[in-house]
Structures are given as C-alpha cells and as structure tokens.
Design goal:
It contains 17 helices and twelve strands. It is α/β, with parallel strands linked by helices and about 525 residues long.
Length: about 525
C-alpha cells in the first residue's frame, strides 16, 4: 500500500532555540563556528565564581601594604559602593563558552601587568576592615566605626501589627484593661452573680435613706424623727450615700451638689410612678441614667472587694489588644552634622602629607557618621586662596603648590556655616548650616607653616568655635618640621587660645600614615570630655 503524499512542508531545522518571554530556564549559547552549543551554568550562577573569589582574596593579601596608594586614588570619604584596589601584574583566568573545554581556561587579553586596569574591586566594608588593620586602629575604635554600616532607628509610637520582638507589653496590658473596663460597663452582669437584683436593692436603699435625710419624712406620725436618727445610723447612712454618689472616681459629686442630685433622683422616681407606671410601688434602678451608672459601679466594686476591672481569666488578652513599637529612621535636627574639611594644598603638602591628611579626614567623617544619621561635607582647600570643591577627586588630586595662607579658607568655612557662601576661586557654593539645625565641625590638616600671623590665627579659630561649632580638630602632617619636636607656626599660635575656646579644640601631629589613629585619639580626647 503506497503512502499518501503529505502536503505538510518540512521546515528547515533551526539551530536557534525559541524561548518564551520571561522564560529563564535555558539561555542558549551558540558555540563559535557552528559547533554544538555548550550547556551554560544553571541557576546557581557562574561556576567559576568561587575560583574568581579565591583569586580576589589572594590579591587582597598583596595590597595591604599599598593602603596609601588606595586612599590616594579612590574617593573614600564620600563612601562609594566599591573600591578599586591596584594589584600586582597577574592575569585573571577567564572561562569563555565555546572556546575553552571543560576544566580549561584562557588568559585575559593583553600581557600580564600591561593593562592599566589591573585591579581588584572590593566592597567598601572590606576596604574599611583592611584600612583599619593596616594603620593599627585600636579594637575599641574599630568596634565604634563598625556602626557606620548600620542604620539607626528610633521608636515612633505604636501600631497594631508587628513582629513579636517589638511587642510593647505595657501598652498591650493597658489596651486589655480598657477593653475589660468597657466590657464591665456594657455587660456587668457577666462578672457579678445576680447583678441586677443587687443593684435594685441598693437603689431602693439609696432612695429611702436619701429621702429621709432630705427632711421629707418630717411630720409623718410613724416617724416623729427622721428614721436614721431613731435607728442611730447617722454616720453609716452618710457614708453609704456618699459611696454611691462617688462610685465613679472620674465623675464625683461634690458635697454642695449632693442635695440637688438627690432631688433629681426623687423627681425621676416620682415621674415614673405617677406617669409611666401608675399603680407601681417601686421604680427600677434604671429610671435615671446618672444614678444607674453610679449604682452599677458601686455594686460591681463592693461585690468584687474593690477589684473594679475584670481579671485576665475573665477577659483574656485578644489580638486586638496587641500593641507593637513602630520603628522608623529618626530624622530630626539632632541627628544632622555638617563638617568642613579644610586642606592645606601648599607646595610642602605634596606626596605623603596629602595621603596622611586624607586618612585623617576619612576617620573624622567615619566618626561623625557613628554619632549622626546625616552628615553633610564641605571640602575646602587653600594655598594663598580658598577653594570649595564638589567632588573628592577634585579636592585631593589638585596639585600642591603656592604659599600657605589659611584665612581665606577659614572665612569661607565661617560664611558657609552661618549664611551660605560661594567660593570666589571655584564658583561653587554651599550652606547655610545654622547651629539651630546642625551640629557643626571643622577639621584642618596642614603642615603648620601658616603665615597668617599668630593673632590672626587665634582670632579666626575663636570666631569659628564661638559661632558656635561643636568641635574643631587641627592636625599637623608631613615632614616639614625639620626635626622639631614641637608644633609649627599654626600649632604654636593655637596653644595660646583662651581656655573656654581651647576646650572645643583638639590638636595633634602625624608624621606617617601609622600615626593617624593615635593623632585622631589625641584630637578627640577633649571631644569625649565635652560629650559632644
């Protein structure tokens, strides 16, 4: 039997795989030159990732001695997400689908070390850890600076939902008490046996004794004197009436208002017996809402020996009682700080002094970020003029040169803080940062050869500190001292400040990068005493 010819046109086989939009189950990789496709890594990611990480860790061990170069070449004060760390010439292995077989790899392009982009990228937190180890930062300061990686949160009221760890037990207990009190007011019969009968008995006794004390029983033949006097119950009657009338602590009846209150109760009873229920001998305790609430509160308290709120066994905690602390980031004036970093960029500051100054500024900014949620930074440099910079790269990579006159930089710092100001040299502007809303700091790094004159230096530091600034740090860096053990011109001038001004000034010297931690501690010593 012959086959029927098929009308179906055979489609040419395609070496491409069609994948529905959003389907990431297969990412086809076509080998070069029409070779069979290589199965790519699965959902677990790149199979070479572990090898690459080991390579990075191996390189990190080689760069700890280059911390100065890293600081000099990377913006670290403004805290970027990643840090590029230069490494020794060595090609990083790269596996490429379609080129390398299983277990094989090839070198990267270019000769080892010839590419100017030889570096390892590391997280900012990793860099901080390596930086602290390299300069020998004490463990106490390491622990404090670790807080810069953590957001600060504050309690902001209560909410009905949240994790069990944030349960506010006191607020939850109060919520149950309020619900129990409301339940007692609405359904007191659930908590006192024969509640209505007992309320009615108290009501009748109250009306009787209140009536007799009002003098309306005088002249009746059966009681020639008021009944409470005949029976000798004068004190007990007064106490009973007062307890009923003041059974609601939040709404007591003053002694001078007692007669009018009782008259109102008598009138309500009279209206009920004469108009609503003619022929009835007794009015119910619900005849008047005001006396009803007081009678109910009196009976409830007496029957429960003074326990006016149902217990937890009677009114258990409910999910509606739960109250949780509402947590959010605090944003108020006390959480903000502004810092002016003032850098001497004179010719004698080139080389290592610049690196030392940057490390010092870096630690100062990290310290402030442990104390405040928001830290604003103004970067100012000076030779014989002032310069206000927008980026860290401009701030540090500008060439050192020129004389050393700091007054223009201090004046710009003061004006930025108080009024907001524009740099005459760069045209950049910043501020203002008023003391009413900002905690203000200035940190100055210089080689100390300031030629402004001792009196001028003291005048400007006094003006800045009393502006007020919370604290001012002064660091002399570099090797320009020529073997001198004391401070240079700037430091000598500042030692003559008045005690009240000097209390807000910290001074130190750092000749090498390793000196920075001890210099920072020395500068901050007064800061701790003043509990900034």
């Amino acid at each position: 039997m012959s086959k029927k010819p098929s009308n179906k046109v055979e489609q040419p086989k395609s070496r491409f795989t069609v994948i529905a939009p959003g389907d990431d189950s297969l990412i086809p990789i076509l080998a070069a030159g029409g070779k069979p496709s290589i199965t790519p890594p699965g959902r677990g990611g790149d199979k070479t990732e572990r090898d690459r990480q080991r390579y990075k860790e191996r390189q990190k061990g080689k760069v700890k001695g280059k911390i100065g170069d890293i600081i000099g070449d990377n913006p670290v004060i403004t805290r970027p997400g990643k840090i590029n760390v230069p490494v020794d010439p060595e090609a990083e292995p790269i596996w490429r689908p379609g080129r390398d077989g299983s277990g094989q790899g090839g070198p990267g392009k270019g000769k080892p070390g010839s590419d100017p982009g030889d570096y390892v990228e590391m997280d900012f937190e990793e860099f901080i850890e390596m930086f602290f180890e390299s300069i020998g930062l004490p463990n106490m300061l390491k622990k404090m600076f670790a807080q810069t990686m953590v957001k600060t949160h504050k309690r902001r009221g209560l909410t009905n939902h949240g994790p069990r760890s944030r349960l506010n037990k006191r607020a939850t207990a109060i919520a149950r008490l309020r619900r129990a009190a409301a339940a007692k007011n609405v359904r007191p019969e659930e908590f006192v046996e024969n509640f209505e009968e007992k309320c009615q008995s108290v009501f009748e006794a109250y009306v009787f004794w209140a009536y007799m004390q009002s003098g309306k029983g005088d002249g009746q033949s059966i009681f020639p004197e008021p009944a409470y006097k005949v029976t000798g119950t004068d004190g007990a009657v007064n106490e009973f009436l007062s307890e009923v009338e003041n059974a609601i602590p939040a709404d007591p009846i003053a002694d001078e208002d007692a007669a009018a209150f009782r008259q109102g109760v008598f009138q309500a009873v009279t209206d009920y017996l004469e108009n609503e229920m003619p022929g009835a001998e007794v009015a119910p305790f619900t005849v008047d809402e005001n006396i009803r609430m007081r009678i109910a509160a009196y009976v409830f308290c007496k029957e429960r020996d003074g326990d006016g709120i149902p217990s937890v066994s009677e009114v258990p905690f409910h999910k509606n009682d739960m109250r949780f602390n509402r947590i959010e980031e605090k944003d108020d004036p006390d959480s903000k700080a502004w810092v002016a970093l003032v850098l001497d960029r004179s010719g004698s500051m080139s080389g290592d002094p610049m690196i030392i100054a940057k490390a010092y500024f870096f630690i100062c900014v990290l310290f402030l970020k442990t104390k405040y949620k928001e830290v604003a930074i103004s970067m100012i440099s000076h030779d014989a003029q002032e310069y206000l910079w927008k980026t860290e790269e401009e701030f540090f990579k500008i060439g050192a040169g020129g004389g050393t006159v700091a007054v223009p930089a201090w004046e710009l710092t003061y004006k930025i803080a108080e009024f907001g100001a524009r740099s005459k040299t760069t045209g950049n502007s910043a501020g203002p940062y008023p003391a009413s809303g900002w905690n203000r700091y200035m940190f100055h790094a210089t080689d100390g050869d300031l030629f402004d004159g001792e009196e001028t230096i003291r005048e400007w530091f006094t003006k800045i500190i009393l502006a007020p600034f919370n604290y001012v740090g002064y660091l002399e860096v570099g090797t320009s001292w020529g073997g001198r053990s004391g401070y240079s011109l700037g430091g000598q001038a500042l030692r003559g400040l008045p005690p009240d001004v000097k209390a807000h000034l910290g001074m130190a010297k750092a000749n090498t990068l390793a000196d920075v931690p001890e210099a920072f501690k020395q500068i901050l010593d007064k800061d701790r005493q003043q509990t900034v």
